[in-house]
Amino acid sequence: MDILNQSYLGKKLFAGTKTKVDNAFSVANDGSISYNGNASDINNKLSENLSLAINVSGQEVMDTNIFTIAKNLKAAMTDGSSEVKDDLDDVNTLLEDINQDLYIPGL
């Protein structure tokens, strides 16, 4: 959770444009996780006609089911389950897709 609530220059990295929230993610007493940011892009204007999204929203991170997978990984380490490899492969694919969305050739 600490990684998902990291800041850079005083702004939350995974909170969309709600960069001044206390935490992008919070855990309730029942263990459920809430996202306190939004899915909006932070754009950096590179030229008159070109802007580039420079963030990944926490919603995109949550769409990878990373918290469920982390829970399954913890269980697998104690009971020897092999289902986790498929989950980790799915997360890797989703994170690669997010990275590809941020990639601009030639920059």
- First-residue to last-residue Cα separation: 31 Å
List the strand order in the largest sheet: 1-2
Average pLDDT taken over every residue:
81
Q: Please summarize the sheet with the most strands.
A: 2 strands, antiparallel
How would the global form be characterised? flat
Low-confidence stretches: none
Q: Tell me roughly what share of residues is in helical segments.
A: 25-40%
What is the strand tally? 6
Secondary-structure element series: EEEEEEHHH
**Category by helix and strand content:** alpha+beta
Radius of gyration over all CA atoms, rounded? 16 Å
Strand fraction equals: 15-25%
Number of helices: 3
Q: Main traits of this protein?
A:
alpha+beta, two-stranded antiparallel ribbon, flat
Structural commentary:
There is one protein chain. With 107 residues, this protein is an alpha+beta fold. The strands form 3 sheets. A two-stranded antiparallel sheet has the order 1-2. A hairpin with a 2-residue loop joins strand 1 and strand 2. Helix 2 packs antiparallel against helix 3. The protein starts with 6 loop residues before the first strand and ends in a 5-residue tail after the last helix.
